[in-house]
Amino acid sequence: MVAEPLLIVEGLRVAYGGIQAVRGITFHINPGEMVALIGANGAGKTSTLKALSRMLDPVGGSIRYQGQEIVKLPPHRLVREGIALVPEGRGVFPRLTIAENLAMGAFTRDDKADIAADLEHVYGLFPRLKEREKQLAGTLSGGEQQMLAIGRALMSRPKLLLLDEPSMGLAPIMVQKIFEVIRMVAAEGMTILLIEQNARLALESSQRGYVMESGEITLTDEASSLLHNPKVREAYLGE
């Protein structure tokens, strides 16, 4: 028996004033799957994630999560329902310590023993955070802040993790470390929607992919097939 998709998006439209950023896209994500959404800057990828996380109000379409329509739910309800966003630019609390930022990730929870266990799990994924847990987040490097942003999202114990450009602005060695952890989290069964400018890295890490152009999804396939698609190779892989 095939499991129902965890997330089903149908006809999603997002606009800024009179400008349509997302033009009626439809896609789905199955439980335990990592799916990449790739495309050029301005294609509508971040607008899509903002709509999914309710940071933006769509102007049309349906977003169903675990069979429930969520298009009108407030963002804090989505966190309780199991959706966590790691935003572009990290968005850590700069005047709070690493430990305090991670505690903020668990603000919807009251299961203290499980929170403590999840904190140790995050520190296991990112030992550097453990070493510096009393350091202010604003003093961390970009890569360390990205670790913290991912760790904070994991502290909410999400069922669906939304990642927006996790490699942006990072040194290659840090990108490698971040993606090692993303793959580890995916291997543990986390469902992930990944937006990533590095199309090769995104597709190599994912099971399926969608290509977005000018607010529309123009291609969808297994990630391995997209890696060998001539159009994708020319447009996004620099070949």
Keywords summarizing the entry:
239 residues, alpha/beta, Rossmann fold, 4-stranded antiparallel β-sheet, 26% strand
Structural features, described:
Keywords: Amino-acid transport, ATP-binding, Cell membrane, Membrane, Nucleotide-binding, Transport. GO terms for molecular function: ATP binding; ATP hydrolysis activity; branched-chain amino acid transmembrane transporter activity. Residues 7-239 form the ABC transporter domain. Belongs to the ABC transporter superfamily. Pfam families: ABC_tran (PF00005). Helices cover 38% and strands 26% of the residues. The N and C termini lie far apart (40 Å). It is an alpha/beta fold and 239 residues long. It contains 10 helices and 10 strands. A hairpin with a 2-residue loop joins strand 1 and strand 2. The strands form 2 sheets. It has a 6-stranded mixed beta sheet, with helices on both faces. It has one domain (31-55, 73-236): Rossmann fold. Helix 3 runs parallel beside helix 6 (142-154).
